[in-house]
Each structure stands twice: as C-alpha cells, then as structure tokens.
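User: Good morning. I'm curious how guanosine-5'-diphosphate would be positioned relative to this chain. Could you predict the structure with it bound?
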Amino acid sequence: MDISALVSDARAGRPRAVARLISLVEDESPHLRAVAAALTPYVGRARVLGLTGPPGVGKSTSTSVLISAFREQDLRVGVLAIDPSSPFSGGALLGDRIRMHDHATDPAVFIRSMATRGHLGGLATATPQALRVLDAAGCDVVLIETVGVGQSEVDIVGLADTTVVLLAPGMGDGVQAAKAGILEVADVFVVNKADRDGAAQTVRDLRHMISLGSHSSWRQPIVRTVASAGEGVSDVVAALDAHREWLVSHGELAGRRARRAAREIEAIAVASLRSRLDGEALAGLASKVAAGELDPYSAADLLIADL
Ligand code: GDP
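Assistant: Good morning! Here's the predicted structure, ligand included:
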C-alpha cells in the first residue's frame, strides 16, 4: 500500500483518501505507524471542538448548523461523530443523521461516524488518529461529537481545544450531566431548545452550578439556542472564538495539546504493553493467585519482568 500517495491525496482534499486513512486507523491496520508518521508534518493546524450532551438534546442538529456557520466563513470542516452504542462504523450511521445531509455534497465538509464495536478503549486510540487525518487533510475545524453518557465519552471529548456541553430544558439533565462529569469539561454551555418551557430555569441551574465550581479565570458562558431554527448559532461561534482567544492569551492551548498528546501516547503504550503480555504466563500466575499461593502484586511484577 502506498501510504504517502494516500496522504497526498488526502491533503489534496480527496474524500475517498481521507475515508481510507480513517478506516486504516479504525481497523488498527498494521500500516498505522506508517500512516501516523506520514501525517505528522501536516498536523496541528486544525481547531478542535468537542460537542457533547445527553441523547436527544440536539447535538446533531447543532453540529449541522455549526457546520453551516463555519462554511459561511469559508472554513473546511471535519466532523467525527462518535456513537458508543452502534456496532457500525465507516459512515453507516449517517443515514440517521438526516440533518447532516445538507452538507453531504459539500466537498469542504467531511463527516465520519465512528463506532466503538463494543470497546471504548479502541476509540480512545482511534479518535486522536482520525483527528490527525482530518487535520492533515486541511480541515480548519474538526468537531468531535459524542453522547455525553459516561467517563469514556468525556475522555474522548476532552481531546478538544474547546468543549461545548449541550443541555436542554426539562430533561433532568443538569443532574445527569453532573454525574457524568461533563460539567467539568465544559468550556461553553449551550442550553438548546430555548423555545421550550423551562429554558430559563435550566440557565439559572447552570449559573448556580458554575458559581460553585469554577476554578479558572475562564468563566464558562451559557448560550441559548434553538438549533432547529438556527437561532443563537452566531452566539455559539462568538463564545468559541472568545474561548480560543483566552486559550492563546493564557498559554493554555499549548498546555491542552500537550495533555492530549500525553494521553494519546499513554493509550498507545498501554495497548502495546497489553498485546505483549504473555497469555500463558498470565494464566499460570492467575492459577497461583487464585489458589492463594501468590499475591497479585508479585504476580504482576513477574509478568512485567518477562516483557
Ligand atoms: P441528538 O440526539 O443530541 O443528536 O439530538 P438531535 O439533534 O437528533 O435532536 C433531537 C430532536 O430535537 C430532533 O427531533 C430535533 O429536531 C429536535 N430539536 C433540535 N433542536 C431543537 C430546538 O432548538 N428546539 C426544539 N423544539 N427541538 C429541537
């Protein structure tokens, strides 16, 4: 396989090459190392945005209107829609994302669904690599969308330079969100479905929570939107820009990106270590631990010493 040809095609904006590279990443292809090395000179330009929130809150609607807003600025946009519940990948889900069809024929928009195939650990490695592909392919903005239901999704969305947490009135999601830890990762809050009763209450609840928990000089703004009508989207874009300026002026952008790289390296290293563990040795040690002949710490030391 000619990786460098594939990378130049992707850089020329050919969607098939981009899709192919992301598939290699998702399938943990043996070519992964070569792909990562070939992409490296071209990454680091894209703004990375995370978007998360409970199911039904309006994430895909918001993603679609945000894409339109970025397209109006003539930016190239990549979207990674992470669906932890789906066994499908490779864009199979896009049929469900009807609103995104508005952008299906726009060559400056690349939308990709990524599924976990039952293990989120895989996504922790694959998502940053897919992000690199889109970055190298010249996307000015990459939007990572996840369902905010658990720690793993929070970790994935935490890859972003700026993370938007979407809530909507009347879903009891303030509490849910707090449980899932998504309030802490929010740089910008969006209360969507502001056309519905209870939006003002959701904003008040959020404002209260922010006043209790803020430990940064960045004050998380709360933006109201009616995504289905495109209302408030320019305010979201303005909040994203303001956060971007704050990141840069406080040296935080570099810090976040270094943390993202550290997590990425760690995920790869852990996966590599796990694959090198000797299964037979592990089974032997496990019987001894189960039989009470050995403690698990000593067993772990022995297993690692064998590497
Ligand atoms: P997701 O599951 O978070 O991606 O949510 P969707 O974007 O699929 O939206 C869920 C439903 O809410 C859809 O029927 C949308 O049309 C609707 N919806 C999205 N935004 C709004 C809004 O601002 N107001 C109202 N009333 N409905 C909305």
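The radius of gyration is 21 Å. Residues 53, 55-61, 192-193, 195-196, 226-228 surround guanosine-5'-diphosphate (CB under 6 Å).
Let me know if you'd like a different ligand tried.
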